[in-house]
Design goal:
289 residues; Rossmann fold; nine-stranded mixed beta sheet
């Protein structure tokens, strides 16, 4: 399949589909129930026509998003809808023991979350391979990325760069206010990683900048970027649509266009979107922010 053209938010109308993944996680953990919301490009009859044709014209890359501790997927709807409208199938799951509805949350369950994300990827690929259904034929299984915020960022960072939890074949990873979760057993960055984008508010007191910087500086095995958000805290850059969320949305779309969709050199677009005086500064290749 030839790479699709680079996308921008609003190129496609977006449809939604909810379902549940039941993950058999062994005798200790039992069955883990994972509610999933999928947003995907479509060509509907209402609203503006998609700039690059209907979803049936070809398969789309897949991005699976992992929420933070005590967060549910719905709070990221603005950001994830923009990704989907740029030409990506975007799924977000609610983790069983750390979501916003859990009565007795325990953060230590984070060590099981990479397997949850992997289970969702596998189920989405199965649904795309079916002859019928809203996701039938929609996903390009050779172009899969993961993204996550806070503890979800820790989760997907491990899937990209931790020896315990690597997901083979990942094409890209986006880590929003993430860290090296200490309970993961193994080695960080002991093998080549996919292209990674680390995004961090410099006023974040929940996951401080030093945690994201540790990941970015340790990632000497592959392509990496660091987006520094001036004055941003832990939630607003990724939840809602206020400044600097539009910057986060545009930089992440440009990053996905280049490294997941394989649609050409988008570095100039990333640099333009990520270097906004008083708002954000983007660096790459180990250059210090």
């Amino acid at each position: 399949m030839s790479p699709r053209p680079p996308g921008q938010a609003g190129d496609y109308q977006v449809a939604e589909q909810s379902f549940t993944v039941s993950e058999a996680a062994g005798a200790t953990l039992g069955t883990r129930i994972l509610p999933v919301m999928v947003r995907y490009p479509e060509s509907g009859q209402s609203g503006p026509a998609p700039a690059r044709g209907p979803a049936s014209a070809g398969k789309f890359p897949l991005v699976v998003f992992a929420p933070g501790f005590l967060q549910c997927g719905a709070v990221y709807s603005d950001l994830l809808t923009q990704w989907a409208s740029a030409g990506y199938v975007v799924a977000v799951l609610n983790f069983p023991n750390t979501n916003c509805y859990t009565k007795n949350p325990y953060e230590s369950d984070l060590i099981n979350q990479p397997r949850d994300v992997s289970a969702v990827i596998g189920r989405l690929e199965e649904l795309s391979e079916q002859a019928k259904g809203p996701l039938a034929g929609l996903i390009d299984a050779s172009r899969v990325a993961v993204a996550g915020h806070s503890d979800g960022g820790d989760t997907v960072a491990a899937m990209a760069a931790m020896s315990c939890c690597r997901y083979p074949g990942l094409r890209a990873a986006i880590v929003l206010a993430g860290a090296e979760w200490p309970a993961f057993t193994g080695r960080w960055f002991s093998a080549a990683t996919p292209p990674m984008l680390f995004v961090q508010g410099n006023a974040d007191t929940i996951n401080p900048p030093a945690a994201s910087l540790q990941l970015y500086q340790a990632d000497s095995t592959g392509i990496r970027y660091y987006l520094n958000l001036y004055g941003a805290q832990h939630l607003p850059p990724y939840e809602g649509d206020q400044v600097p969320e539009p910057t986060v949305a545009q930089v992440t779309i440009d990053f996905l266009d280049q490294y997941l969709a394989g649609s050409g050199d988008e570095t100039s677009e990333m640099n333009s979107a990520g270097n906004v005086p008083g708002v954000a500064h983007l660096v790459g290749g180990g250059v210090q922010p």
